[in-house]
Amino acid sequence: MKLVLLSGGSGKRLWPLSNDARSKQFLKVLETQNGELQSMVQRVWEQLGNVGLADSAVIATSKSQVDMIQSQLGQDVPIIIEPMRRDTFPAIALASVYLYSVEGIRLDEVVAVLPVDPYVEDRFFHRVKDLEETVLASGADLALIGVEPTYPSAKYGYIVPASKSSDSGYLRVSHFTEKPTEEKAAELIKQGALWNCGVFAFKLDYIISLLQEKGFPIQYDELLKQYDKLPKISFDYEVVEKTEHIVVLPYDGYWKDLGTWNTLTEEMATNQIGKGVISADCENTHLINELDIPVTVLGISNAVVAVSPDGILVADKAKSPKIKELVNDFDQRPMYEERRWGWYRVLDYTKFEDGREVLTKRIGVTAGKNLSYQMHHHRSEVWTIIKGEGEFALNGEIRRVKPGDVLEIPVGAKHGIKAITDLEFIEVQTGTQLIEEDIVRIYMTWEEVEANCFSASK
């Protein structure tokens, strides 16, 4: 069985820590057994390893999340990159075609799909393993996992089975109900309905045949070219609702969607991350602060205070799910991002009346990692090294750099840097188009830089 993890979303429900570049699954707010902080995607990937599924898994994601995934899971994690965001049906279609035409997976092999961020026990993934046998034994087109509800929630979708029990261990699905009222949810639970946790499986042939019927190519490179022609629709609407033979595998363990501040803080091991103070008379209040300034919370209960370079949120926990509606129209560049080589934080951005822009960043490069050897057409840069040591390449020459060094990079100059120890520098960009598209990457690895540049010390 192959596993496809879907990693998408802009994560606006966890603003200001999440943004278009750093969705909720990448926030390091959960605690490991040894007290370190980890993200949802790191937790899930570790759990897949615990049950022997990591080697069978690939992650389907957009270009904007690749660096974050590699930063948190390593450079070798298998990734299928969507050329643009187009909802879950196109993502699953692309992943299926990749497995078929690139990896050479047989058409009768079972493929399971799940979100990259469920908050579950390890045994949930043992249940995911059971999907393979369920698909083969039932002859169903789709097999789902349904979580046995612990209360009548209006936040989740429900899978309604045709009967409450079965000798086979799986149930035939009658229909689906999406986010009912609590009263309706209580009725559904009496009928044996299960929470839909977004996990399902199928034989690869089911999706490949569907794409052929719709006239889409089943070769990966060809489908990439036509990706914008795939319907921008969820897999539920495009496939699940039109499929007649569906079964569901009940799961009676712990499962939670940590998609809002109130649900996420329930699973945090500490009520404070970052610099600040929460007064003793605050009850059930959480402070998450990513800035290097103290935040004091005094006499406020049942609240979440979240502080990041993107903004500040002070919210009643019960009202916090509404944050997406309020910030959906915010149009600003992400102020903090993790990359494959480290991270950066925007310190200041100014646009002058004559069209000039100045962007100031604090950049951290992890020891042994490097920024690509690149150039810009529309901006100059000045780097001031503030921590660590590294190798700096400029127009074919490599030299050592240390704290206090100021590096000037004119428009059009080829440049890159590698961290020998953990390295930090302040970057000031000046120009007319301070955008990601104004990066011309020449070499990605430092081995290529060393092979094509000379050392100033020689």
UniProtKB/TrEMBL annotation:
Pfam families in the cross-refs: MannoseP_isomer, NTP_transferase
Residue span(s) of domain Mannose-6-phosphate isomerase type II C-terminal: 339-442
GO terms assigned for molecular function: mannose-1-phosphate guanylyltransferase (GDP) activity; mannose-1-phosphate guanylyltransferase (GTP) activity; mannose-6-phosphate isomerase activity
Enzyme Commission identifier(s): 2.7.7.22, 5.3.1.8
Matches recorded under InterPro entries: Man6P_isomerase-2_C, Mannose-6P_isomerase_type2, NTP_transferase_dom, Nucleotide-diphossugar_trans, RmlC-like_jellyroll, RmlC_Cupin_sf
CDD domains given in the database record: cupin_PMI_typeII_C
Keywords tagged on the record: Isomerase, Nucleotidyltransferase, Transferase
GO process terms (BP): GDP-mannose biosynthetic process; polysaccharide metabolic process
The protein, known as: Mannose-6-phosphate isomerase (Phosphomannose isomerase) mannose-1-phosphate guanylyl transferase (GDP-mannose pyrophosphorylase)
Matching SUPFAM superfamilies: Nucleotide-diphospho-sugar transferases, RmlC-like cupins
Residue span(s) of domain Nucleotidyl transferase: 4-269
